[in-house]
Amino acid sequence: MRIVAILALAAAVAATSGCTVAGNAADSDAEQVVVGYQSKTINTVTAGTLLKAQGFFEKRLGEITGRKFHVVWQDYDTGAPITAQMIAGKIDIGSMGDYPLLINGSRGQQQAETRTKLVSATGYNIRGALNMVVTTPTATIADLKGLKDKTVSTSVGSAAHGTLVQALERQGVTGVKVENQVPQVGASALQSGNVAALSQFVAWPALLVHRGEARPLYDGGALDVPTFHGVVVREQYAKDHADVVKAFLKAQIDATAFLWNDPLAAAKSVADATGLPPEVVYLYNGAGGQVTFDVQLKQALRDAHAHDVPFLKSIGVLQSIDLAAFVDDSYLKAVYGEGYDADFGQTANRAAITGTDAVCGRPVTDPALAGEIWPADAERTVPAATPTCLLRAVRANKPRVAYVPDALTGTRWFADKSLWVQDPAAPADERFKPFVTRSSADAYTATHPGARLVTYAQALEQA
Questions:
Q1: CATH value at residue 389
Q2: 8 Å CB contact between 208 and 215
Q3: How high is the pLDDT of residue 77?
């Protein structure tokens, strides 16, 4: 029954195993532009799902070009087919993750007429928390060391694969067999017991945990290596249609500002379009969410890309790439407006949790402590200054969902799915510490005498 459920979920999340073409019927005199996106990869929504739902691109096309356009939206499961279609000249603009972006650039540089350009970012996590390794709730495996001589499902060549390999190397774990599977197949393999763990990117880890089908084994945020998604365009198309590329980037800025200003409305829009639970989408795309949305290709992201190249070469999916030739933010600079250089050095999440914590009576100012509650009977969320304050609020009024940041990695997670530590030496409003994984909780208790693990129910009762 679990396998049937997860396959049904995959069908709801992914409308197709290939692509879906969506758009209004084209006027006979309208120019066509084809956009490849991944609706369920929700850290690309400002260049895909949200952008499409709000109609920002179509609006900016009319304003900036003064011509009629028919936008064809093609929805794919992964970045690989988008790259293949771009190389074939059938997709003009696409969005995908950091590893697929490198493969896109490398393949494009093999011939002058197929070259592509990385023109903007969509969403990122500066520590790498968008990737996670999960196992089943009943598994006896406590950490990555328990994967020795076992099989792990991942999408080979993806950032989630890179996270798995780097994490295993850091912890000296050997003998792990990697099974190359798309996320939905890997999820069913995990539930059937064919693999011991699943290493994947958003939104699969939280989706499975939210459904009670998995628990975190490794938080990608512990790796402390940025992961991100971005937008690529065909170089020749950009040269011939610079105004269209600028219209797309201006629309992406619109979508990003929309998300910053009302992250809950943006998350609901994405949930409606994808079939993903709103609670899962908002974990990633909400205020203080795992995903930081920004259009600029920050220096930390560029450095991370250079860091990723050797790994992709080592597994044989990348031959060579000229990163300096691939990255081109000139189109973005042309439409960004004032403050580009000043903003370039900023990596804080602008969709921040703000306000006043009504339970503890203090302002919410520290993103490393701030949590959020979505009341069961309300359409707006409520801020919490600290995880301990959040526990008090949850106990008083059981919410639809509550989110807290991991005390070590900062990764935003479900409060009821977190592991909790009580530290009697901490200030009263900060006495309870949440963690995504057991290894992080153990690391904290090992260095804080008197701190001990407690259940979520105990944390609620004692907070």
A1: 3.30.450.410
A2: no
A3: 85
What are the structure tokens assigned to 369, written together? Answer: 């402590």
Asked whether residue 7 is domain-assigned, the answer is no
Instruction: Flag whether 10 is in a domain.
Output: no
pLDDT surpasses 50 at 2: no
110 belongs to a structural domain: yes
Does residue 349 belong to any structural domain of this protein? no
Q: How large is the average pLDDT for residues 114-138?
A: 97
Residue-level pLDDT at 19: 53
Q: What is the DSSP letter of 129?
A: T
- 300-354: pLDDT as tens digits: 999 999 999 999 999 999 989 999 999 999 999 999 999 999 999 999 999 999 9
> What is d(CA 154, CA 136) in angstroms, rounded to the nearest whole number?
15
From 287, 312, 344, give the residue that closes a domain.
344
Closest CA to 333 of 295, 301, 305, 294: 295
The answer to whether the predicted template modeling score (pTM) of the entire model surpasses 0.85 is yes
Amino acid identity of residue 203, one-letter, is A
Query: How many alpha carbons fall within 13 Å on the CB side of residue 181?
Result: 21
Q: Is the dihedral of CA 369, 374, 375, 379 positive or negative?
A: positive
Whether 387 and 422 have beta carbons less than 8 Å apart is answered as: no
Is the model's pLDDT at 455 over the cut of 60? yes
Distance CA 360, CA 340 (A): 38
DSSP 3-state assignment of 318? Answer: coil
Could you tell me the CATH number of the domain that includes residue 181?
3.40.190.10
Res 3: pLDDT? 35
Q: Is 172 left (phi over 0), alpha (psi -120 to 50) or beta?
A: left
